[in-house]
Write a structure and sequence with these properties.
Layout (H helix, E strand, L loop, with lengths): L12 E5 L16 H5 L1 H9 L4 E5 L15 H11 L3 E3 L11 E3 L14 H8 L4 E4 L21 E3 L1 H15 L5 E5 L4 H14 L2 E4 L4 H7 L14 H11 L3 E2 L4 E4 L8 E4 L9 E5 L1 H12 L3 E5 L12 H12 L3 E5 L1 H9 L8 E2 L3 H8 L5 H4 L3
Parallel strand pairs: 1-2, 1-5, 2-4, 3-4, 5-6, 7-8, 7-13, 8-9, 13-14, 14-15
Antiparallel strand pairs: 10-11, 10-12
This protein binds adenosine-5'-diphosphate and magnesium ion.
The site of adenosine-5'-diphosphate has 19 residues, from strand 12 and helix 11.
């Protein structure tokens, strides 16, 4: 993969694809600007190396037409504050404002964007001399601004993209051992591919969150009203066979009557969940034994919370695991939006080595898939 070391931006106009797909509240105010901050090293480096103009391209949400609620105006304003320069928003691809840093409107306003349309890519390319892709979170999509355009200009990965790919690939290719994978969250089917890869490569795989229940079901336990994806049961059975001792499941659980912070709560000694209850967190003894494994790891990859951490009575398992990841002297990498939110909630976000900005992209990379946005820069 080419990087900024392979480009000379001096005096050039540089089209930079960034991932500014930030959460907004109902009044279009940004509630979390981590992704915008994550692009600053690349933007600052390009400016300090003499780039004449930066033209930023990004998507926001999934607009069906030019929905004004999905304008990138709030992102342009926040970037302007962070960079300390004006960031003008281009009214259209044919009306590019002057200025050292300008921003195109939501690329998904263009019907050809998600079709990887070569004509649209040619219009993007006509705006600049060089192309830099720093949008790791969008690298698993072959879209006009992430894939087709990369072939039309001298192109390279930005520093965020470089760091994400290097760190995540490093875990698969040459991890410090023991390599411990911690997998949880809600959707087993999205993550079973990654779990499978870790059953090959990791030394220990710890499973928590709602991800447990297809495993428990496959083992013949009662899951009560727990969130348990049916399509997850067969893959879970296969993973149990393949995983042997490597694969660890909780030995106790915390259950609630319903998914709510003020519901009745019960600590279960085992993992059978009675009818009328749902398992919403791993139990105390499971959390302690997971923490002990994590604290002695050479490398930790964590994706997915251990329980419904948003609800106070069910946050302890995730908190204990987050603390152990923070304490671990090895290399620690966390992927997934909710896992990152959990770390932030516990004030531990700056205690991990790498917090991936790309949910889907990081899972696909860990599964060993080639990301079109990365391949186009190679
Ligand atoms: P990430 O974004 O880190 O990849 P996911 O999106 O897969 O994580 O899962 C996060 C969600 O899973 C959280 O909203 C959390 O409430 C939910 N969750 C975790 N454990 C359980 C459980 N036992 N029952 C219901 N929901 C759960
Ligand atoms: Mg999530």
């Amino acid at each position: 993969m080419r990087t900024l070391d392979d480009l000379d931006p001096d005096g050039k106009r540089v089209l930079v694809r960034v991932d500014f797909n930030v959460p907004l509240d109902e009044r279009q105010r940004i509630t979390d600007d981590v992704r915008i901050r994550a692009a600053l090293p690349t933007l600052e480096e390009l400016r300090s190396r003499g780039a004449r103009q930066l033209i930023l391209a990004a998507h926001l949400g999934r607009p069906k037409d030019r929905e004004p609620e999905l304008s990138l105006k709030p992102a342009a304003e926040r970037l302007s504050e962070l960079l300390g320069v004006d960031v003008a928003l281009a009214p259209s691809l044919d009306e590019l404002p002057d200025g050292e840093v300008v921003m195109l409107e939501n690329v998904r306003y263009e019907p050809g964007e998600t079709k990887n349309d070569p004509k649209l890519a040619a219009r993007y390319a006509a705006l600049a001399d060089l192309y830099v892709n720093d949008a790791f979170g969008a690298a698993h999509r072959a879209h006009a601004s992430t894939e087709a355009v990369a072939h039309l200009l001298p192109s390279a990965a930005g520093r965020l993209m470089e760091r994400e790919v290097r760190t995540l690939k490093g875990i698969l290719e040459d991890p410090k051992r023991p390599l411990v994978a911690v997998m949880g969250g809600a959707k087993v089917t999205d993550k079973i591919g990654v779990l499978d890869v870790f059953l090959d490569r990791a030394d220990i795989v710890l499973v928590g969150g709602a991800m447990c229940f297809p495993f428990f079901k496959a083992q013949g336990h009662e899951v009560g009203d727990s969130l348990c994806e049916r399509e997850g049961i067969d893959p879970a059975r296969a993973a149990l066979e393949k995983g042997g001792d490597k694969l660890r499941l909780p030995s106790d659980l915390v259950a609630g009557r319903e998914f709510s912070a003020d519901t009745e709560v019960s600590s279960l000694d085992g993992v059978d969940v009675p009818a009328g209850w749902m398992g919403l967190d791993i139990g105390r003894s499971s959390a302690e034994s997971y923490a002990a494994v994590i604290e002695t790891a050479g490398t930790v990859f964590w994706n997915g919370p251990m329980g419904a951490f948003e609800l106070d009575p069910f946050a302890d398992g995730t908190r204990r695991v987050a603390e152990a990841v923070a304490e671990c002297p090895g290399t620690t990498v966390v992927g997934g939006g909710d896992s990152a939110a959990a770390l932030a909630q516990f004030g531990l976000a700056d205690r991990v080595d790498h917090l991936s900005t790309g949910g889907g992209a990081s899972l696909e990379l860990m599964e060993g898939k080639e990301l079109p946005g990365v391949v186009a820069l190679s």
